[in-house]
Write a structure and sequence with these properties.
Structural class of chain B: mainly alpha
Shape of chain A: flat
Main location (chain A): nucleus
Largest sheet of chain B: none
Biased composition (Low complexity) (chain A): 35-45
Strand content of chain A: under 5%
Largest interface: A-B, 58 and 54 residues
Region (Disordered) (chain A): 1-66, 180-250
Radius of gyration of chain A: 53 Å
Radius of gyration of chain B: 32 Å
Order of helices and strands of chain B: HEHHHH
Helix content of chain B: over 70%
Distance between the termini of chain A: 161 Å
Order of helices and strands of chain A: HHHHHHHEHHHH
Structural class of chain A: mainly alpha
Number of strands of chain B: 1
Oligomer: heterodimer
Pfam families (chain A): Med19
GO biological process, one term (chain A): positive regulation of transcription by RNA polymerase II
Chain lengths: 250, 135
């Protein structure tokens, strides 16, 4: 086997290339640039040690790869296959990382949209954007508060600054009392809508009619009603017989 | 792991409840409740101190910044988890599709090349020395 350097250093000096009018070597169309001058081995009698040949494209290939290239027969650019990794996108990664429970929990059913559904016990209106009242977490990151001071309890003198006037706060300042509206049951909603104009169901109307009929059919009730009417008519001043009967009694 | 969060959660809940009570006292302040107010203010300071102490236990916890956007918009942060899982599954399926297609393409290419260049492909198979997927 030939030594490695012998493969790339030409044994014979190449023929002198024609130079251009300016003395520079001509550029070969479609080929590579001229590279360095051809005085590779230098003058034979000079004391300067021979300069190693410039690294060419072929010489930049590592030894191992060159060997594999030679063993690749008629094929070039044949490289080693990438090592087979156990975990690729061809496997279900959610199952691989045991996330099926989380997947079922979050993707199986509908997750409620609002923050108050996630933190139902938190007082105040938390569904409004944080940028409105300058309470966003993003602003906390962008402008971090000044930290480092220790937390010391307030003494008597310091607490005098927190003496408040008696009386209620104005409505707009009572933020803690505002709660996000909670959804009511569908049943309640239906009854609410029915309240202003309750539609008569057939069963309801039948029931009422029946009651009315029962009342009318009741004979005692009828008689009493008649008696009442008679009495009324007797006492009324318009009734012709009323005055006479009364007068007759007198 | 869960204990750390439980501890922080407990402190946060106490702090929020204290602030709520403080709000109630302040919303309709009576001079007689000044002592209660002072007590609540000091509870608030100790509450903040307790929360600050929890920081040491949670220094290795990382939170994705996108979650903060959800919270700032008044949205449920669980939606972020849901969308992440859905995106991961969609990407997983996409990559699996690509891998399967490339495998099919490789076997078909080898099959067709073997018809046209049988000798070369025999050499190629000898070099590779692998089991090609069935076409």
């Amino acid at each position: 086997m030939e030594p490695f350097s012998a493969l790339f250093v030409p044994s014979e000096p190449p023929p002198a290339l024609p130079t251009g009018p300016s003395g520079a070597p001509p550029v070969v169309p479609g080929g590579f640039g001229p590279g360095k001058p051809l005085s590779v081995s230098g003058p034979p009698n000079s004391s300067v040690p021979p300069i190693p040949p410039p690294p060419s494209l072929s010489s930049s290939v590592p030894v191992g790869e060159d060997a594999s290239r030679r063993s690749s027969g008629p094929f070039y650019l044949l490289r080693e296959l990438p090592g087979l990794s156990d975990l690729t996108g061809s496997v279900n990664l959610i199952l691989h990382y045991n996330l099926e429970h989380a997947f079922g929990k979050f993707c199986g059913k509908k997750v409620k949209e609002k923050l108050s559904n996630f933190l139902p016990d938190l007082p105040g209106m938390i569904d409004t954007p944080g940028s409105q009242d300058n309470s966003s977490l993003r602003s906390l990151i962008e402008k971090p508060p000044i930290c480092g001071n220790s937390f010391t309890p307030l003494t008597g003198a310091l607490l005098t600054g927190f003496r408040l006037h008696a009386g209620p706060l104005p409505e707009q300042c009572r933020l803690m009392h505002i709660q996000p509206p909670k959804k009511k049951n569908k049943k309640h909603k239906q009854s609410r809508t029915q309240e202003p104009a309750p539609p008569e169901t057939p069963s309801d109307s039948d029931h009422r009619k029946k009651k009315k009929k029962q009342r009318e059919d009741d004979p005692e009730r009828r008689r009493k009603k008649k008696d009442k009417k008679k009495k009324k008519s007797r006492h009324s001043p318009e009734h012709p017989g009323a005055g006479s009967s009364q007068s007759g009694l007198r | 792991m869960a204990e750390k969060f439980d501890n922080l959660e407990e402190h946060l809940e106490k702090f929020v409840e204290n602030i709520r009570q403080l709000g109630i006292i302040v919303s309709d302040f009576q001079p007689s409740s000044q002592a209660g107010l002072n007590q609540k203010l000091n509870f608030m300071i100790t509450g903040l101190s307790d929360i600050d102490k929890c920081r040491q236990q949670l220094h290795d916890i990382t939170v994705p910044l996108e979650v903060f956007d959800y919270i700032d918009q008044g949205r449920n942060p669980q939606l972020y988890t849901k969308e992440c899982l859905e995106r991961a599954l969609a990407k997983n399926e996409q990559v699996k599709g690509k891998i399967d297609t490339m495998k099919k393409f490789k076997s078909l290419l080898i099959q067709e090349l073997s018809k046209v260049f049988p000798e070369d492909m025999a050499k190629y198979k000898a070099i590779r020395g692998e089991d090609h997927p069935p076409s």
